[in-house]
Amino acid sequence: MLGRRRPLAPPPAHVRTTLPAVALLVACTQPVAVAKYARAADRTTQAFSGVAGEMTASCVRFERYKAERDGGGWDDDAALRRRCAGRDSAVKNAVVASLVLREYFAALANLAANQLVHYDADVRALAQDVGDAGVDPARARAVGDLAAFLADAATGQYRRRELAQVVETENESVLAVVDGLHAIVTEDYRLELEIERQAVNDYFHTAVATDGAREPLAAMLVKNLRDDQIATIATKESALRSYARALARVRAGHQALYDAREELDAPALANELAGYVTTIDDILAALRQAF
Predict the structure, then answer these.
(1) Number of domains forming the structure of the chain
(2) Structural domain contains residue 23
(3) Structural domain containing residue 35
(4) Is residue 186 part of a domain?
(5) Would the pTM count as exceeding 0.85?
(6) What does the alpha-carbon distance between residue 233 and residue 242 come to, in Å, rounded to a whole number?
């Protein structure tokens, strides 16, 4: 017949003192790299508003050069902007998408730091009123899905315990919105600048061809002015290529979070995210010089 087991002796006093401290340390451990990445992604999406503003400005400059070349004179800005109204609508919708994405990354940083999510009331209103001009339907749905998540996270008082689930459920929408912004930068705005370059060349070529023989000094000054305008466009094109790389790093970073969502404090993930953050910050510093 087996004897009764003796109760386990309590742990030594120093162990009893240490255990709560260890538990507290584990509870307070934060996926710091996730928060740093999210803030870098936030800064990247914040820069989109300036890029989008330049898209509209490029359209206005093109219309101005076109009007002068065609003999219509210099129209006021209001008239020129009316001709760019279609472009304006698409740009505004893209800006709203970038604002919602920025709110998402701010939320991600808060969750990683075990803080509550805040959803800006102005962005919430803009997201509800966004139109369909220039927006792919699938990407428009992705913006709506992110907006819905932000509303739920703010009212549901999400904290760090929801971080992995958020990354998993929102990854597809995040990638879709980032891809949309990337396409605008690499396709739409690139085309805008190419059209503007052609308008600059046509305008100054006409001016030199008309008066160059009679006023050679003036023609030289016109050519220098043309070269300055073309160089400015080239600088913006280079900055856009860099910004596209920053968006690509944002995309890759969130995919890395998704792939490692069960172990968001893993050293390998931290190293990968740190590389993305360094590249993003270098690019954004250069971008501020161009826009």
Answers:
(1) 1
(2) no
(3) 31-290
(4) yes
(5) no
(6) 14
